[in-house]
Write a structure and sequence with these properties.
Pfam families: PhzC-PhzF. With about 290 residues, this protein is an alpha+beta fold. It has two domains: about 1-120 and about 275-285, Diaminopimelate Epimerase, Chain A, domain 1, CATH 3.10.310; about 125-270, Roll (Diaminopimelate Epimerase, Chain A, domain 1). The chain has five helices and 18 strands. It has an 18-stranded mixed β-sheet that branches. Helix 2 (about 75-90) packs across helix 5 (about 225-235).
Length: about 290
Amino acid sequence: MNLPFYIVDVFTEKKYAGNQLAIFLEAEGLSDEQMQKIAREINFAESTFITKLSPESNTATIRIFTPEHEMKFAGHPIIGTSWVLMNKIFGNQPRNITLKVPIGEIPVHQSGDLVWLKSAQPQFLDTFSAESFLSFSNLSSADFDDAFPIQEVTTGSAFVIVPLKNKKALENLILDKDIMNEWLHKHCKTNHRALYFYCLEDDKLISRMLCIENNQLIEDAATGSASTCLQAFLLKYNAPEIQIINHQGDFINRSSQIYFDGKLTENHFDIKIGGETQFIAKGEWEV
């Protein structure tokens, strides 16, 4: 059994930056175990598997796997998979499609070089004190931006949003993996446990996403699901409208640009993130 697949870089204006993604077509015959093994073999942050394709309605059902587990929702896999479908697979090259993922239907559209998704409504979970981070990081109390809370937020995948005062604190960040892992398991409300540090300095938004996977501390180059959570957080606590670029991956040599366009109106969040996708390769995967 051979599967056609594509490799792209997502949330980047140039090749060999942003977040890598593998997209496998004709995956309806694969078992959960096979999808997980393939995702582990290719070892990108995520890989997607298209299990149903409906060109007549411009829809597709996909599953998203990290090397360790399946995700209910993830931003860069949806953006990258949509770009491939709209520009390489669907013959009519539609500008609007819908991807079906475990949390529901995600509307996606392309405008120019940018592909945009609209996220589900956020949930704001527990808040935490800055002091609780001192045990597993090199941060001092003065490094946290106390104008904002530290809070776990989810739009399908949950992240603890951690505001820092400046780029220096973000760049110099060091975490103790084992103590961090204990903290995440003790405090996070969902099975998806990750930290999303950010700073707003001179009107520039910079971020870092760190989690533990396969007992290793992992930093992601561009995290769309975390960006939807951060956008919701900023709409709630900073301003009810936002148009800004979120810069991630700068400190691991995979610079990424995630576009924010959001609005909060009477407790309804209109959260959209967008980005460019760069085609890298295509081929056949022998199962």
